[in-house]
């Protein structure tokens, strides 16, 4: 046989052998398909999608049970919904809870209060502790009437503790409180200056007229004085310049307490913008979809857009190790081990000593019966964190599966030495979970939030960071200049600059009405700055109560009861306030 | 408004304390058998006192000499200068540097107190208190509290009793025969009567040199006072010719304007209230953007809940309000502009309307895609296959 003939035979033999090997090898199982993150936000296996599909179907069945007025079936479906959510390591279904609330109020409007109540119960079970459930309960109770009014009253007391249980809503509520308080103080300050002008302004006006009248005819001097007092209103943002000018002019006519109030107002005007600017970036981050998704994960709330929002997180911080770690934990909780493993590997490339990632990688291999790799990773975890009882416990489990019983005993003893209580608990639950995993990625949510905050920084202007700092501090600088100027005036003038009291205009009755209806006038006439400011603050706070969210951020309640209670409190409060004022002013008349 | 009565029924200390405690402003005139004194109160504190028969200059000069701030000869020279040049003795004393202003004010204060201490001894006469408007007093004069006055009067009384009988205390110059003043109807004896007046109280000043430099610049007053040397004839009080009502009300009008402006800004542009300076445009826009974002988030949740229940987006935001998913104020944005809502099959667009047109760049569009409860494509996606490719060998 020639050499070429030998080569040809060899090739044929090799091809036959390969073909035989291919035919004899077991047919590989069809691999579980994984969805594209462009559609589902994060990759999802078939089983996860099936679970989500099941939730959708169960919800549709619940709606059917609602229309059929079948509470037993509805209750069973709620149990099934929660069980399905637990498979995905979630425990709340907020969207479905809101849907149940709407159905509840719908039933109440139709007069079917029994159905309304079991729909409310379903809403509470699907997402316990939400204030919207109490709001809807109040609506139902109001429609019910009778004994329901008691539930209306108790509902108002139950709702606010629940408010503080939801992170985004709680955060926005406090931001609203900050904005509302700052607005209240600034508006009250502006009105304080207005009252000062109404009382002391007569003296100021006459002084100005007298000053201008030295050179000009009196009518012209009057016109110039008026123009001098109002010209800032024509500037951009003239209101603040007008108030500042008047406050500076009225400084000389005020008592010490009034001057203290003016200084406080100038400081507030300077500090308020700085506070807002600092908070604004945090609010932007808090409202962003990725942060909402992280809050959902923390609270185990499975809402419809959760995975899409998580996908947005990855696109915003593609290189972040913390984000990869978090997503790895998400995949692990969804029982998507392969997807979790690739992310854990990436995390370990950046952070080789990340104990949580090492434990979870080891757990992956353990569940794949690859005990050699499992032991290797658990050992690395133990080396990275010698105090980790979980690493030692997992090692003992892996050794046990590898029939290395001496090593297993040693590792278990070490684990007990480190934390015997936890080890006892792990052993007790070993039938459910033989290996301990770590939610290290979830624990990095605050770190991710800081990274998002840094990424949300506004691009610096041409002035650079120092220029930006100066620009932000300009308002405070302006306040400082005003205070220094006023103090200089104070030192240069007589210490007590109080001048004539204002005119008692018209009849006694008119004067009484003026004092009652314009809070702060009596105190301004007496030179009591602090009392005058607080006399204005109380009615303004009541008047602005219904605008609590209007001035700030809208809290994204799933069910909104409206603002009626705030209006009721405001109207009653104002009525009481002015009633007390009338009585007080009358009793102090001579 | 005026209060009047007699000293037989209400002692002067009581009247002074009443005015002080009530922190009244006005003029208390006390007409005795020998003199008429006008005491100016400012918020319950005494800022001036003038006697008909005892001029300010005379009393002040005596105090300055008695306190050693001026010698008799200096006083004499100053008085001559004053008579020659006119004006006020007080101004001459300061301008010619006989005394400085602080010393002068202290002396004036002492003189006022002494006058009032004398007055406190009166037990017969009528009083009338005119409340309201302005009082004229020397700029820089530190008000005398009634408590201080009564305390010093008590001490002086005790000293006088302890002193051996000496020359009787200086009494005001003998008054002329008292002539009932041509004033509003005298109060009935033995009673305290409140006289209500619809007009502001008149300014009352005794005769003599031009009054002390007022603070503030007074409205032109027309107070006519006739008196002959050493004799009190008649005191005519005329109401001052005040400034026009419009000018008197000007500060109140300006204040009302500021209040209205504040309310308008609060309701229409609350961001401008919190970040009011021109260099804060960027920050203001960012805050408004976040506030708008929170509103759109709320609307999105409401709309998607509706979709979850009905299988479609609502036809209008009003449906969401009726279902309780939105509040009435959520149908308008932060600046009060109505929101235009445009639904599609699987998405919607919401944007504020300004001047009849959608405000460009301020809207938001949302869709059901990515929501596993709403998006039909989410759970029926064609997935990427991860099977092993078959390698063909040559």
Q: Which key terms come to mind for this protein?
A:
heterodimer, A: 590 residues, mainly alpha, Serine Threonine Protein Phosphatase 5, Tetratricopeptide repeat, 3 domains, 74% helix, elongated, disordered N terminus, B: 394 residues, alpha+beta, six-stranded antiparallel β-sheet, four-stranded antiparallel β-sheet, 10 helices, 36% helix, disordered C terminus
Task: Count every beta strand of chain B, where a strand is a DSSP E run of 2 or more residues.
Answer: 12
For the largest beta-sheet of chain B, the strand count, sense and barrel status come to: 6 strands, antiparallel
- Mean of residue pLDDT values of chain B: 75
How much helical structure, as a percent, in the residues of chain A? over 70%
Mind sketching the topology for me?
The complex is a heterodimer of chains A (590) and B (394).
Chain A: H1 3-24, H2 37-40, H3 46-67, H4 71-87, H5 94-109, H6 113-126, H7 131-144, H8 148-163, H9 167-213, H10 218-230, H11 238-251, H12 256-287, H13 289-298, H14 306-316, H15 321-333, H16 337-350, H17 355-367, H18 371-384, H19 389-401, H20 405-428, H21 445-455, H22 464-492, H23 508-517, H24 521-525, H25 529-544, H26 564-587
Chain B: E1 2-6, H1 12-21, E2 26-31, E3 36-42, E4 45-51, H2 56-66, H3 72-85, H4 89-95, H5 101-119, E5 126-131, H6 146-162, E6 193-195, E7 225-228, E8 231-235, H7 245-268, H8 270-274, H9 281-310, H10 317-322, E9 339-343, E10 347-354, E11 357-358, E12 364-367
Helix pairs in contact in B: 2-5
Task: Describe the structure in your own words.
The complex is a heterodimer of chains A (590) and B (394). Chain A is mainly α and 590 residues long. Chain A has 3 domains: 119 residues, Serine Threonine Protein Phosphatase 5, Tetratricopeptide repeat; 235 residues, no CATH class; 153 residues, Tetratricopeptide repeat domain (Serine Threonine Protein Phosphatase 5, Tetratricopeptide repeat). Helix content of chain A is 74%, strand content 0%. The longest helix of chain A is centred in the first third of the chain and has 47 residues. Chain A is elongated, with a radius of gyration of 36 Å. The C terminus of chain B is likely disordered. Chain B is elongated. In chain B, 36% of the residues lie in helices and 16% in strands. In chain B, helix 2 crosses helix 5. Chain B has a 6-stranded antiparallel beta sheet with strand order 4-3-2-5-1-6, with helices on one face. In chain B, strands 9, 10, 11 and 12 form a 4-stranded antiparallel beta sheet that branches. With 394 residues, chain B is α+β, with helices and mostly antiparallel strands. Chain B has 2 domains: 241 residues, no CATH class; 90 residues. Chain B contains 10 helices and 12 strands. The chains are: A mainly alpha (590), B alpha+beta (394). At the A-B interface, helix 3, helix 5, helix 9, helix 10 and helix 11 of A face helix 7, helix 8 and helix 9 of B.
